[in-house]
Amino acid sequence: MPELLTHRRLDQPRPPHRFSVSFDPELFGQISERIARFLGTGKFLFWMTVFVISWITTNLLAVGMQWDPYPFILLNLAFSTQASYAAPLILLAQNRQDDRDRVSLEEDRARAEQTKADTDYLARELAALRLAIGEVATRDYLRSELDRLREEVPGLRSAAEKRRARSVARNPDDA
User: Where is this region: Disordered (predicted)?
Assistant: First the structure.
């Protein structure tokens, strides 16, 4: 069995590399979304058209400045480079938007489920209250029962009749 070298310890993490590149994926995503949004604007199309027309005009008319003669190979290379970067940036922006939409949809579903549960609970409570109200003695029911009792018990007069009798005795004009 070979012996481990003294400078390599397996029980400890390796020291970080000297030339490690670290980047914030959220910041990179935000920048890529800004670029993707800009590539889809009329402003970008206008300035790209101005650039291409000036490139072609300069290379066709200014004989001394022809850095890219007629087949415009350099311009095509620039377009290819732009397209090779634009497509992944646009896809990254779409993926990030899809993630945001998915989170929003999940929140909407959870909110809808909670609303439905609350509505079901309130409907059950309302049904229970309606049943309970059906069993509650109403004012008219109590009056009719008191009137029946007054008729059954001789000499029992209602408080309202007593008050009326007193007020008539005090003010005979109110009768």
Answer: 155-175
C-alpha angle 53-54-60 in degrees, rounded to nearest 5: 90
Cβ 56 vs Cβ 75: under 8 Å: yes
Q: Residue 77's pLDDT is what?
A: 92
Q: Both 117 and 162 in a single domain?
A: no
First to last CA, the chain: 124
Alpha-carbon gap, residue 104 to 92, rounded angstroms: 18
What is the number of domains present in the chain? Answer: 2
What's residue 154's pLDDT?
66
Q: Are residues 38 and 104 in the same domain?
A: yes
Phi/psi for 156 (5° steps) reads: -95, 120
Which residue ranges in the chain fall short of pLDDT 70?
Answer: 1-8, 154-160, 163, 172-175
Nearest in space to 33 (alpha carbons), one of 106, 103, 88, 80: 88
Tell me, yes or no, whether 2 lies in a domain: no
**What is the domain extent for residue 162?**
137-175
Structure tokens that stand for 123 in this block = 């409907």
Give pLDDT, residue 2.
Answer: 58
Determine the angle formed by the axes of helices 42-61 and 25-39, rounding to 10 degrees: 70
Residue 27 neighbours by CB distance under 10 Å = 9
Q: Looking at residue 157, what is its pLDDT?
A: 61
